[in-house]
């Protein structure tokens, strides 16, 4: 990993996104926090990202089961074939 990540907003944002889903390493989180101490834009991104994650979790969204998706795909393909 490049220590330059400390000053790269794109990579800091990527680590922030990974951190929201517990996919970042301890070292990455430390570098992200150090970067955020110096960068207002990345602090705001992190704050907004956290709020968005909380809203999505509270929404308790459900996805369509895979078998129903497959049925819809088949129906669409049948209609296209006509």
Task: Explain the overall architecture.
With 82 residues, the protein is mostly helical. The chain has one domain. It contains four helices and no strands. It has helices spanning 9-20, 26-38, 40-59, 66-81. Helix 1 crosses helix 2, helix 1 (9-20) runs parallel beside helix 3 and helix 2 (26-38) crosses helix 3. The longest helix has 20 residues, at 40-59. The protein is elongated and about 60 Å long. The N and C termini lie far apart (54 Å). The mean pLDDT is 87.
Question: How would you briefly describe this protein structure?
Answer:
The protein is mainly alpha-helical and 82 residues long.
Q: Tell me the number of strands.
A: 0
Structural class: mainly alpha
Q: Would you tell me the overall average pLDDT?
A: 87
Tally of discrete structural domains: 1
Write the H/E string, N to C: HHHH
Count of alpha and pi helical runs: 4
Measured between the Cα atoms of the first and last residue, the distance is: 54 Å
Low-confidence stretches: none
Task: Report the C-alpha radius of gyration, rounded.
Answer: 20 Å
Sheet having the most strands: none
Keywords:
82 residues; mainly alpha; 74% helix; Glycine dehydrogenase
List the helices and strands and how they pair.
Layout: H1 9-20, H2 26-38, H3 40-59, H4 66-81
Helix pairs in contact: 1-2, 1-3, 2-3
């Amino acid at each position: 990993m490049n220590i330059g990540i400390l000053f790269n907003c794109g990579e800091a944002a990527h680590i922030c996104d990974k951190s929201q889903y517990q996919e970042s390493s301890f070292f990455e989180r430390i570098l992200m926090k150090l970067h955020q101490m110096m960068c207002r834009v990345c602090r705001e991104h992190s704050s907004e990202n956290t709020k968005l994650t909380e809203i999505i979790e509270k929404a308790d969204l459900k996805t369509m089961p895979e078998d129903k998706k497959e049925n819809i795909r088949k129906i669409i393909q049948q209609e296209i074939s006509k």
